[in-house]
User: Fold these one by one.
Assistant:
Number 1:
Amino acid sequence: MSITGVGLTKIGQHWDRSLRSLAVEAASRAMEDSGIEGVDAIFVGNMMSGLLNGQENLGSLLADYLGLAGIPSVKVEAACASGGAAAVQGFMAVKSGLFRRVLVVGVEKMTDMTDSEDVSAALATAADAEYEVFYGATFVSLNALIMRLYARRYGLSEEDFGYLPILMHSNASDTPHAQLRFKIDMERYLGSPMISDPLRLMDAAPVGDGAAAVVLEGSDSGVEVAGVGMATDQIALHSRGDLLRLPAVELAARRAMEMAGITQKEVDVFQIHDAFSVMGYLNMESIGLAEPGRAYILAESGEIARDGPVPVNPEGGLKARGHPVGATGIYQLAELYNQIVGRAGPSQVEGAKLGFAINVGGTGSNVAAVVLRGR
Amino acid sequence: MSITGVGLTKIGQHWDRSLRSLAVEAASRAMEDSGIEGVDAIFVGNMMSGLLNGQENLGSLLADYLGLAGIPSVKVEAACASGGAAAVQGFMAVKSGLFRRVLVVGVEKMTDMTDSEDVSAALATAADAEYEVFYGATFVSLNALIMRLYARRYGLSEEDFGYLPILMHSNASDTPHAQLRFKIDMERYLGSPMISDPLRLMDAAPVGDGAAAVVLEGSDSGVEVAGVGMATDQIALHSRGDLLRLPAVELAARRAMEMAGITQKEVDVFQIHDAFSVMGYLNMESIGLAEPGRAYILAESGEIARDGPVPVNPEGGLKARGHPVGATGIYQLAELYNQIVGRAGPSQVEGAKLGFAINVGGTGSNVAAVVLRGR
């Protein structure tokens, strides 16, 4: 199984674009990149189109607007892991023998709402509506709780959380399709407003619009999809044994790596889900890049920089490249594909051949992992 | 591939129940029916949980509340065909070899909103938000447009649309899990209020809550899933060549029947998607049960009654058994399973061995078809 083409849009606040226009751009580019004019089925990764755009039935919408009406096409939702989950559905669809070639499109149009409270409420549907959100929790505040415990248990300073966003902004500064193309320093990080104490604005991925797409087919060309894995965890934080472990990340990563027959030590370039600084750190620890509480050192030391021994999110990650929620998992695959075929531009990691992506939904409750390997 | 167990809840306005409680009831019953205590993955068919229940991430929620957190679990959305689409995903998942045994759960909790306009707005997300809903169309009014053209082109009287709901109410009257367990006559049909001229309240499926589940596994026991098929059509009515054809129903049905190696003439019992009377008629015509404009005769004559030559929706269909949107496609499979194993109770069709279900999303824009065969 291979990815034979990818397409993506610039991420940003596209007030002049619609969801369908972004999705069609990414999908058309992916098919053009793959040298094809049609596919046998479409899987759309999206989380919030009902709430934010008054539009469900994205499967029909995209098949229609791609001129492909007739083929099977559905939406897959797994909170912020919707993109990765859609990719796994596409993988199974081809593997099942029912389809030869499928398109996986991730899209999220977050700026159709003028009230930021609406976006916050939509994001909170990833958490437990009855036992978390009902009591006033937002998605940001749940991550702030985790961050507070993390800081206390491992003795991190305020600065320690800044190293990851500072590196991500640096990476994004020369990435053409990134949303936040500017560098920040520690002063700016520490000066950014608290949005849910101790979580600062600069700890959080921005609200943005974007779409990414990949063509999956049973083929010996392109980049091999060497492994996929998914996993779930308890949806609400209060049910978890330890707030500072992400068992679904551990499980999904292990499943994908076992299918690919690799270990994390062999990976040349990583995509982690840094929707919040603390989530980025927990991701790295859960996949074995650092001991618990020590991930910040990887960022501080530059070990995860583009030219470091363990490159992570060389294009700027969710934090600065951008995080159009349901599209993120597909952006990750498109970034890895571009790395492996050597066309990642300024963010290119020298000799990248084995890539790994982890896409995390909710506060770690729904996770998709993918291993891509160059041929 | 087989269905080895099914479970379903009574359909109704369950003001005292939550989405998770309904889904867990159906899923637990299906696993108990199958004699198992766990599965390898879950696929949740649901359309509107974000808008109606403030809850996405149903994959995690259900895995968690079934005590199965850890396994892959995602939500699949294809408007009113979400249930059928989830079943097809489950089919592919097992067929792919990634999973041995999966649970497919359909659920919709429509009565959490106290304002019926909210439900109407949520249902309208199946249509084109920018080119239909923006201009004031509702899901009911789009079906009313189709009904008006149907009546005019084929010369149907008002009574002619009443034959299907009258039969469906009769079928539901002794179905234990049906929502509307009462008979209606032509006088009551004609006396029911116009909700979007010429569409009457009694032409429309009711708003209700419910959940249904099936266990799918590679097995020689149980009921064989002999064929599946999906298809899309243009999402908006104004794009269609002919409003009175449902090409996605034709395509999906043909795909499922070809996979099963059968024709429609061999089918013992049908499940059609009669969300509105005219949709029921168009369904029957699209799968070849009647010539265009003549489906009403099947209902009037009793040919599609339980003891007729072509039994359709013997338990009462969407109209009277009920239509908890994302669950409907799974209810259809559970009804067929119960028919084939001979435990459909009062609605039992004598000697039913081959069943066919068609689950229609939007105004025919996203369709899933399934053929079940007894062993």
Number 2:
Amino acid sequence: MIDKQHNQLSFGIGVDIGGTKILIMIMDNQGNIIFREKVKTSNNIKEIIEIIKTCISKVNIDLKNIVGMGIGIPGRVDSQRGFVIEVPSLGWENMKFKSMFEEHFNFPIYIKNDVNYSVIGERWLGNGKNKDDIFYISIGTGVGSAIIANGKIIEGYHFSAGEIAYLLEKEDVKSGRQNTFNDFGVFEKKTSGTALTEQGKKLNLTAKELFIEYKKNNPVVVPIIEEFILEISIVIANVVSLLNPESVIIGGGVSESMKCLIDKIIDTVSKLTPMNTNIELSKLGGDAGAIGASSVTFQNFRKK
Amino acid sequence: MIDKQHNQLSFGIGVDIGGTKILIMIMDNQGNIIFREKVKTSNNIKEIIEIIKTCISKVNIDLKNIVGMGIGIPGRVDSQRGFVIEVPSLGWENMKFKSMFEEHFNFPIYIKNDVNYSVIGERWLGNGKNKDDIFYISIGTGVGSAIIANGKIIEGYHFSAGEIAYLLEKEDVKSGRQNTFNDFGVFEKKTSGTALTEQGKKLNLTAKELFIEYKKNNPVVVPIIEEFILEISIVIANVVSLLNPESVIIGGGVSESMKCLIDKIIDTVSKLTPMNTNIELSKLGGDAGAIGASSVTFQNFRKK
């Protein structure tokens, strides 16, 4: 894994802070993963910094060839000023995150929402290569999304873009379902890993097992997964009608069990919008965020 | 209207080709309207060119100060190559539109979808001033939209972005409602000037009269308009959740009668998405498209 050649390259660190795990990766500018470690998450900045320093010390590379570190945050981030606005799951609010890290490292730090880094990762090494218009939908514990249009991430005016969790339909409104900050959104309550887990519980099945039973044509499970497919397909179709992306990428933890669903999703979406697009599962899976986070260090390096 | 001072300025021509009328405007680079004329529409290119030439001849300006002409097209346009891809309402398909016009004029020609020019117009002189993230929704005979994100129009991979006409809900799918090219979309069939006109017919009222009766609290009309408000508000709320724009602008012919509805729409949207935005009716109304079309001539001029 470690050879002399690496010392001639530049390296970027990508950190993906999740609700349960932190993924730390060191990559070279050719797209090779030099180091990869997953540790239990922490909301303590000093602890996170120590974890990263330990990781760096494990790798036999020339430290002066590290060109930067990107950190993906599971919440709202002012990426321009380097502020974390809020991350309810980790209890973070209004933190000068970038400068807190810069004090401890000799290279530039970049921060962004984690899902935004995922689509950047897919665009670098995954299913979004050379594409300027991508819709990335992340289905995990919750649901989220990231949008690249005209070759640039859409972060939105308050850095809140991509919140498909809040999508709703007339039926939801008439039934009194509402969206509130720091709670699961209306769409998310119907369609997420958590929603599937809850439905599975009634049948003594995990979310993953639901997909396996669907594949086996289990008559109790089929309508549950068909509803899931329809809900996801409607959201994808509507975003395709609105943004006309070249490509739709489905990522996030749940997507890793969705191979048996993708053809049905493609077929359903094609019936719901007359616009063509290309729908694929994420190529990089759970690594997309850390890969994307490391990649921005090279882009900025190249710009210099 | 015409004075000597104008000769010191540069002028841009904005043409908005609609399904029933063509609006021709000549503006100076300070945002003043020098000339404005509306004529019956034509799908004959030679005829349109003659109409424009006649308009130019009516204005006492130095022709060498005309820096370009922008033409808004009610259909799908490859704005980069200057091709009209398709305009079903005018029977146009795969036309080298830009070069057909360039043969007859000595200044650069720009073409784009008409709704995209409307939001560009609002951003220059209307309610989108100095804003980089705008969602513009146009309610007229049909419905359409235009998106500015990161300061740039999102045209989409096939130049089809903004097609909210095709938005649909689970209820639509379960009822067998489908979207097909060259037909009104599922959302559009429920919510557009045409949809309102049809509902009004049953009561012997025009679309405009429906709004007047709503204001008078006519008990038969109130539920029709409340449904209209809800439908529009759901689409706005969903786009706000997805794109987090600074501003939402409601334009198009029908919007001109919507003053009595805007407060209710603002209130409804605020209940459907937890994200803040600013919702306003178009300031420029039906002139937005031609104003936007003329403005791009100045932008390109300045870039040189």
